[in-house]
């Protein structure tokens, strides 16, 4: 809970997602991370939630953000970027805080290279949204709020 008691969710983005809009637009589209932030704030605001929005290229910063989220937010919408496919540490952090996590991938990772087919995050995620473009973040916010209301 924040000081004003408005419920909050964390939208967390991993490495290279700061480049959204210019990074491989044929795969990730033309929307920027600022656009994603606005979409998330609008979707959350409709349901009376506030958004904390963070992107980092550093695994440890993401782990610290997951730890800090415990007791502060209702859950996390998380695009771990390439750490999805490599990071036991991020999976352990999610297990450790016991918050619902919605895993989001802009692209359909299952149509791409084989190394993108495995996720260390999926077994500890409440829900997984892939291949919906940046609308996946909106769906993630809505799903998290749906779960929080249960
Ligand atoms: C991604 C998919 C990952 O495989 C990739 O490393 C990313 C972005 C996505 O949103 O589609 O950085 O998570």
Automatic annotation (TrEMBL):
Q: Which domain of life is it from?
A: Bacteria
Q: Which InterPro entries match?
A: DHquinase_II, DHquinase_II_CS, DHquinase_II_sf
One Pfam match, by short name? DHquinase_II
What chemistry does it catalyse, as a reaction equation? 3-dehydroquinate = 3-dehydroshikimate + H2O
The active site is formed by 28 (proton acceptor), 105 (proton donor)
**Gene3D superfamilies, alphabetized:** Dehydroquinase, class II
Which residues does the record give as substrate binding sites?
79, 85, 92, 106-107, 116
Q: In which pathway does it act?
A: Metabolic intermediate biosynthesis; chorismate biosynthesis; chorismate from D-erythrose 4-phosphate and phosphoenolpyruvate: step 3/7
An example Gene Ontology molecular-function term = 3-dehydroquinate dehydratase activity
Positions marked as site (Transition state stabilizer):
23
Is the keyword Lyase in the record?
Answer: yes
SUPFAM superfamilies named in the record = Type II 3-dehydroquinate dehydratase
Q: What are the UniProt keywords, alphabetically?
A: Amino-acid biosynthesis, Aromatic amino acid biosynthesis, Lyase
Which enzyme class?
Answer: lyase
Q: Could you say which EC number(s) this protein's record lists?
A: 4.2.1.10
What is the stated purpose of this protein? Catalyzes a trans-dehydration via an enolate intermediate.
The family classification in the record reads:
Belongs to the type-II 3-dehydroquinase family.
NCBIfam families referenced in this protein's UniProt entry, alphabetically: aroQ, PRK05395.1-2, PRK05395.1-3, PRK05395.1-4
User: What subunit structure does UniProt give?
Assistant: Homododecamer.
Official protein name in the record: 3-dehydroquinate dehydratase
Organism for this UniProt entry: Paeniglutamicibacter sulfureus
């Amino acid at each position: 809970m924040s000081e004003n008691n408005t419920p909050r969710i964390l939208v967390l983005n991993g490495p290279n997602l700061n480049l959204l809009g210019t990074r491989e637009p044929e795969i990730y589209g033309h929307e920027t991370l600022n656009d994603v932030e606005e979409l998330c704030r609008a979707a959350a605001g409709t349901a009376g939630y506030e958004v904390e929005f963070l992107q980092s290229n550093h695994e440890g910063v993401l782990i610290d953000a997951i730890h800090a989220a415990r007791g502060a937010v209702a859950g996390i919408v998380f695009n771990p970027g390439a750490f999805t496919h490599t990071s036991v540490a991020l999976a352990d952090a999610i297990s450790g805080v016991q918050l619902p996590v919605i895993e989001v991938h802009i692209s359909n990772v299952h149509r791409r290279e084989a190394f993108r087919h495995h996720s260390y995050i999926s077994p500890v995620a409440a829900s997984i949204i892939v291949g919906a473009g940046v609308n996946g973040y909106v769906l993630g916010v809505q799903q998290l709020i749906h779960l929080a209301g249960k």
